[in-house]
Amino acid sequence: MDTPAESLDFIRTIVHNDLATGKHESIQTRFPPEPNGYLHIGHAKAICLSFGLAEETGGACNLRFDDTNPTREDTIFVEAIRADILWLGFNWDSEHFTSDYFEQLHAWAIQLVEAGKAYVCDLSPDEARTYRGTLTEPGKPSPCRDRAIAENVDLFQRMTAGEFEEGTHVLRAKIDVASPNLNLRDPVMYRILKEHHHRTGDRWSVYPMYDWAHGQSDSIERITHSLCSLEFENHRPLYDWYVRELGIYAPRQIEFARFNLSHTVMSKRKIQQLVEEGHVAGWDDPRLPTLSGFRRRGCPPAAIRQFCQEIGMAKRVNMIEIAKLEGCIRSELNTTARRYLGVLRPLKVVITNYPEDQVEYHTGNNNPNDESAGTRQIPFSREFYIEQEDFMAEAPRKYFRLTPGREVRLRYAYFVTCTHFDSDDDGNVTTVYCTYDPETKGGNAPDGRKVKGTIHWVSAAHAISAEVRLYDTLFTVENPEKQDEPFLNLLNPESLTVLSDCKVEPAATEISISQAVQFERQGFFAPDLESTPEALIFNRTVSLRDAWAKIAKKNR
């Protein structure tokens, strides 16, 4: 309630004014997903808004599953939605299903029929579209519009009893067939669906349309502010018409703009297609914009919440660069993630003047930005692995990593100097040989000499093998949904690179599933759901640098 006025978006301004003027004593919001798929990053914005407003004002937020279409809904999605909301850091004050209100919604429908405000229509779907008109032409009254009230009551009851086949009859509101708003041209309230419902079973043969169920469910729950995405702005007059004609509590619907995230798709239908056709490994594939995908990738929920806060509330749909989200992830993980040593493309190094059987331990900081994270002991021995890219047989002038005759610092350990190397018949370097300076333990030279290069390593005798999955954007273009060619043609063939023989320090076996850590100089990674201590699998959460920003700058 003490939020500074300058920090309020247009929705929060409305809410705070309603509280200040006494229009409402407390705020009641809701988050109403349809359980027909997994939530994505776009839903996170709605979650943060509805639950966040309730938290900020001392109000309440309900979770309500909009389960009015039994052909697409499943309890699997219900459970996934619950898990996603909890993972984001929110909890609901009460949980409801629109199906909880089917009896009441049906009774209210009869009330409108008996008041002459609704009628049963038996136009075919094609005929109904013709009678509805277009954006530039008004609709025409259905031949069924002037049926007697008693006949409409009888027909609706027979629809409910399952007497008619699907597509033969609907219940329509009687509003204005000539309205410039197509949503008011006698919209459908109920259609016949002879499908098994995940909660009500085979009890119903008719199911309410979203526009009919939405406002009335809000009314039942005494929602003060019904927050919807912008595509429902033209539906608001219908929302208000229903509650007004029924004479029931009237919530206020407020719309905000969705956003699109670059280099991916936000359409649930297209995400489902990607899953069902095997273009991705499931709804929680780390390349998808689903919340379960972000969780599997190791994205911290705090970064998602920060991202939603930074993009704010807008009144028009906009495109958000994925770099902005990645920036929020890096910022959060840089503060919280523990550090480990990991080599993704290993190259063996042998220190020729180091005792063959000696093992020593060096102290590594778990997080340089958090002293409370403590330290760990990292084993070091005569043979170890470095990154292939950290050695060049013939290096350019400004190459400061390992090359014959050059001295570099081993992170946490010693200065080493390359003396020679071995290659295979194809010219690939197989082993690098170095000497070390035992006086430089810890990475500093007593004589004060400096080296420009510092590289990471993993002791060969102690290394744990791991599979590492490097993820890139799923699509090659910014907005695959706005292209002339099918969106599947724009899939990025390099969206996933699997490295099968990476080496990580032994402590990495203790990392929890989906807990992001930093492999120093490499990026942030998290164990996959399929990872085990015996077969480690790491997903790259995000790189250390914004590669896409560099590419964009280069192409300007």
Descriptive keywords:
556 residues, alpha/beta, Rossmann fold, Ribosomal Protein L25, Chain P, 3 domains, elongated
Provide the fold topology.
Elements: H1 10-20, E1 28-31, H2 41-57, E2 60-65, H3 75-88, E3 94-97, H4 102-114, E4 118-121, H5 125-132, H6 149-160, E5 170-173, E6 188-192, E7 206-208, H7 210-220, E8 225-229, H8 236-246, E9 252-256, E10 259-261, H9 268-276, H10 291-297, H11 301-311, E11 318-320, H12 322-336, E12 339-340, E13 342-343, E14 346-351, E15 359-365, E16 375-381, E17 383-387, E18 407-410, E19 415-423, E20 429-437, E21 454-455, E22 458-459, E23 464-471, E24 496-504, E25 517-519, E26 523-527, E27 536-542, H13 547-555
Parallel strand pairs: 1-2, 2-3, 8-9, 10-11, 12-25, 14-20, 18-21, 23-27
Antiparallel strand pairs: 4-5, 5-6, 6-7, 13-24, 14-17, 15-16, 17-22, 18-19, 19-20, 23-24, 25-26, 26-27
Helix pairs in contact: 2-11, 7-8, 11-12
Can you tell me about this structure?
Strands 12-25-26-27-23-24-13 form a seven-stranded mixed sheet, with helices on one face. It has helices spanning 10-20, 41-57, 75-88, 102-114, 125-132, 149-160, 210-220, 236-246, 268-276, 291-297, 301-311, 322-336, 547-555, and strands at 28-31, 60-65, 94-97, 118-121, 170-173, 188-192, 206-208, 225-229, 252-256, 259-261, 318-320, 339-340, 342-343, 346-351, 359-365, 375-381, 383-387, 407-410, 415-423, 429-437, 454-455, 458-459, 464-471, 496-504, 517-519, 523-527, 536-542. Helix content is 27%, strand content 24%. It has 13 helices and 27 strands. Helix 2 (41-57) links the parallel strand 1 (28-31) and strand 2 (60-65). The chain has three domains: 5-256, Rossmann fold, CATH 3.40.50; 268-338 and 466-555, Beta Barrel (Ribosomal Protein L25, Chain P); 342-456, Ribosomal Protein L25, Chain P (Beta Barrel), CATH 2.40.240.
